[in-house]
Amino acid sequence: MSGNEEINAKVKEWLDWDKNVTTRAEIEELVATNNVDELKNRLLKRMEFGTAGLRARMGAGYSQMNDLTIIQTTQGLTKYLLDTNDNVQRQGVVVGYDGRHNSERFAWLTAAVLINKGIPVFLYSNLCPTPYVPYAVLFYKAAAGIMVTASHNPKEDNGYKVYWDNGAQIISPVDKGIAAAIMEKLEPEVTSWDASIVENSPLRKDPLSEISRSYNEDLGKLCYYRNQNSSSPIKFTYTAMHGVGYEYVRAACKTFAFSDPVPVIEQVMPDPEFPTVTYPNPEEGKGALSMSINTADANESMVILANDPDADRLAIAEKQPSGKWHIFSGNETGALLGWWSWFSYKRKNPDVNASDCYMLASTVSSKILQAIADYEGFKFEETLTGFKWMGNRSHDLLRQGKTVLFAFEEAIGFMCGTSVLDKDGVSAAMVCSEMATYLYTQMNTTIYDQLQAIYKKYGFHISSNSYYICHDPPTIQKMFDDIRNYQGSGKYPETCGPYKIKYVRDLTVGYDNSKPDNKPTLPTSKSSQMITFTFENGCVATLRTSGTEPKIKYYTEHRPDPKQDLDLDSAKNELEDMVQCIVTYFYQPEKFGFIARQP
């Protein structure tokens, strides 16, 4: 292409390095049609390796997930492991994969790179839930773990998630070290393309049966009422959302003495096309759970359990006396599981020192655990968004001899116990099932009514979370810059519509006016946008960008002061009005062209 020397050089480089005929053909087609803009997007941009590892669309080019970028990433990770861990060739690395297009191939290429450098690989022989990788890292005392998954993203995407030797997702400085090592040697070694060496390599071990057995044995530590479970009056309906979860949940049911759940037949087996849902994400509500509701109604089932495709997250729903279904938000399920974790643990360990027990939640999640902790005497800690922070903090607490009972994030991620230092939708499904059975049989109440009882005892915690979509990062930057220079004042806003703002915390720039020195206690990061407003009426609202999707999210929670004497409906109405003000005055979707979340 005349006049495009930089592009021409990158095209030549790609065609020299890429041995996959499909992705080579993609680049050749773009050259043949002189599609310069797309070639620039594919070859002059590169996926950033960060604390979420990688997640992007599959296709040819350095900005997408493909054989070559998987090999480059694993070469960098391997180099970093060899440079920083003298025992890596003894410890090995765990590699798992989900049911998405190319996941198995990417996992085998990953294993080939590691084995070529003399590093043992615990490579699963079949699809597995994401939690099985961090569990296996701890079980084998491995140096790291890699899970090939894009979780609940659209079918076109895939990802590469990295865990460290503590069983938690990587955080800084490890992510930065790996990213630098990737860039030091981008040219793939010839041997990296030969995944067939993995099959008969003495360095390859299949952990599937051993980990399945051990995981379910450890899962039994979370089971408090096994005898009651075997005669549960509840018929549970289960969907795997076209993912990997069903067989693993069935195995977990045996540990808890539950009968197999009623499967949503159309969604229970792995299918990378996700044919029955617009988004394979149970968090999206009734649209994603419509088939589950139909199956439950047809089978007189009262409770739905829904995993996302890699089974690390869980949504639950309960049929109400009116016949309507209540789909619990992540914050509501977090409140229930937090209450249950303390209730059941305390009954089994009546002499426990509460001050040695901890629960955690991310900063954008409900503070209901804080309220329960203040009342009951255990400790609560807030972390940055993402289970990488809660997992690593839990590991630190365990090393101090503390007991971590539970952690959650509002995006339906739950960590029950500490066998897995990450969100785990399989264990959460079992704990929710036992809790529901106990509520129905021992307390003569429902899940929804127990949630109301929790709020009555510990205080209202009413949430409203959603997002807008924007594919243009400079536009998102402009929105946040406008907030920091509100209406040209050079300052943050002091009100949002009629609602007065008490405090502002900006973790992007490192500002928090609730602290004497205006410095936040949580870590800051210039690479992502995150501003939190605390209003005088008790509402807290956080606006942030997503690390893996083109979303600008908002998280709001109303915790009205009891002196306000607001009833539940009034508090909900006030929160709804505040959300509208946040959208109108801060998001300004018409001005910026943001696309609203579809109901």
From TrEMBL:
Metal-binding keyword on record: yes
A GO biological process held by the record: purine ribonucleoside salvage
Cofactor dependency: Mg(2+)
Cellular component GO terms, alphabetical: cytoplasm; nucleus
Keyword Phosphoprotein: yes
Gene3D superfamilies, sorted: Alpha-D-Glucose-1,6-Bisphosphate, subunit A, domain 3
Record keywords, A-Z: Carbohydrate metabolism, Cytoplasm, Glucose metabolism, Isomerase, Magnesium, Metal-binding, Phosphoprotein
Gene Ontology molecular function: magnesium ion binding; phosphopentomutase activity
Cellular compartments annotated: Cytoplasm
Domain of life of the native organism: Eukaryota
Family affiliation: Belongs to the phosphohexose mutase family.
Protein name, UniProt field: Phosphoglucomutase-2
